[in-house]
Design a protein that fits this description.
4-stranded antiparallel beta sheet; alpha+beta; 16 helices; disordered C terminus
Length: about 475
């Protein structure tokens, strides 16, 4: 016998939510199936909705966290002391020195594992029934699929091995030590591999949907109303039923408000009938959006970033200057290794959406990375000390710096095999689908940004050349007349 259908699970979840004391779900919105658009569930407006309408209310008692689940009360010793270090997922020493309780990230994973394993005995079971079981976040991509991303630095940020180590050190031992708590009577216990897989699924769910539960009292706290990845363990995190049904974009129409006893979702501008209700995850480029949440968006392309390694910049520098190894060695000795940055971020540094969830202004790179400029100039100054003829003045130093940056950007662009023209064609004709399509969006956006950086460096070089040409002309006072 097959289980409930997608629509039946949605209906059961809504019925459960509406029965919660203090919950409210506006009659003019509905949960809908958006799988044909690759977005799972979503919420749309059935009728025109005015600005400032409260779309739904989630009582804080319905949020899953360490305060609402009974796990902390059943194994209080785990949440007051643990043999595991609370920063690196490893024991403090070989004997496992005692430290504080698990941080909020690990605590929420334990709580979610516990509630998930309870099955029908958990009061959140209808909510678990609508949580995703498959993910497009990069953690779940195969090596072949990750190769689609080519030279994108986002691949290095996935951290699957680190997650494995953390789960094995900080989560699995607690479950295995307390099987009678985590497994209800009659429920078969998971193997280590099965438990690790479930921990990864729970971790990905938390990564995508966990909410910072701080109140709005602290107006200076950044990102207080956004989905967050709280790895510092300083903020109470929780899973918020119904709020995580909302999809999100950089152009959005709803806002989550923190109140004393509830969270409310409000329309920040009129929402037309048939329009999807959208939340906002922050000014993330498509690479980071894909890593955390498993999707890409045209509106987020303006926030794309590219990381340029210092090794690549140094390769461009050495390629552009005829300097012998001895001079390079002496110049390098002038620099403080602790002051040398390993990588630099190229981004457009654009404003976030306005209070109505709308974007303004062009999507254009206007500045080259200042920290990269400073570090290249530091090297050039050190070289000048060794060989003044190589860099005779500031004008020449600025020219070399811009030329090096342009070359480094070109070298980084060359690491992406496919052409931007071919990728633009593939995206416009929908000839790539699924994960390949999302990887293409990431690559294409990063390459456009690099092309802008190359163009900007070239423009500044031309400006310097024009200035130099002007400066070489005699001034009016010095022109001799016959």
């Amino acid at each position: 016998m097959s289980g409930p259908t997608f629509e039946e699970r949605s209906t059961a979840f809504l019925r459960w939510f509406q029965a919660l004391p203090g919950a409210n779900f506006h009659a003019d919105i509905e949960i809908t199936d958006l799988r044909q658009n690759g977005r799972g569930r979503g919420i749309i407006a059935k009728k025109d909705i005015p600005e400032d309408t409260v779309l739904f209310t989630i009582p804080r008692a319905a949020i899953i966290n360490t305060q609402t689940s009974d796990l902390a009360r059943r194994i209080p010793d785990v949440f007051t002391t643990t043999i595991l270090d609370d920063t690196d997922g490893e024991a403090d020493d070989e004997d496992g020195a005692t430290t504080g309780p698990p941080d909020n990230w690990v605590s929420l994973i334990l709580v979610m594992l516990y509630e998930c394993l309870q099955g029908d005995k958990s009061r959140w079971q209808p909510y678990f029934d609508v949580l995703p079981t498959e993910f497009d976040t990069l953690m779940w991509w195969s090596d072949k699929e990750l190769d689609y991303l080519q030279a994108s630095s986002i691949v290095a940020k996935i951290g699957k091995n680190d997650a494995d180590s953390m789960f094995r050190a900080r989560v699995l031992p607690i479950v295995e030590k307390n099987p009678d708590v985590f497994y209800p009577a009659g429920v078969p216990r998971l193997t280590e591999d099965e438990l690790l897989l479930l921990a990864h699924r729970i971790g990905s769910t938390i990564m995508a949907y966990a909410f910072d539960l701080e109140n709005d009292d602290d107006e200076e706290q950044e990102g207080e109303d956004e989905w967050v990845e709280d790895r510092e363990g300083k903020v109470l995190m929780g899973m918020v039923p119904m709020a995580d049904v909302l999809n999100a974009d950089a152009v959005f129409n709803a806002h989550v408000n923190h109140e004393e006893d509830s969270l409310t979702v409000t329309a920040i501008r009129p929402i037309a009938a048939g329009e999807e209700v959208l939340n906002y995850y922050g000014p993330l480029g498509n690479g980071e959006l894909l890593r955390r949440y498993g999707y890409t968006s045209p509106h987020h392309a303006r926030y794309d970033v590219v990381e340029l390694s210092w090794d690549l910049a140094m390769a461009a520098l050495k390629q552009g200057l005829a300097v012998d190894d001895e001079t390079w060695g002496k110049a390098s000795a002038e620099l403080d290794p602790e002051e040398i940055e390993d990588a630099f971020v190229i981004d457009r540094d654009l404003d976030e959406p306005d209070s109505r969830g709308e974007l303004h202004g062009p999507k254009t790179l206007t500045k080259l990375p200042e920290d990269l400029t400073e570090q290249i100039n530091a090297v050039l100054k050190a070289l000048r000390k060794q060989n003044p003829e190589t860099i005779p003045d500031k004008q020449r130093r600025d020219e070399i710096c811009l030329s090096v940056m342009r070359s480094a950007f070109q070298m980084k662009l060359a690491e992406y095999p496919a052409s931007t023209e071919a990728e633009a064609e593939a995206l416009s004709t929908n000839s790539v689908l699924g994960r390949l399509a999302m990887a293409t969006v990431v690559r294409y956006g990063e390459k456009l940004l690099l092309q802008e950086a190359i163009g900007l460096a070239h423009e500044k070089l031309n400006g310097l050349a024009a200035t130099q040409g002007h400066d070489t002309q005699p001034s009016a006072k010095r022109v001799r007349t016959k």
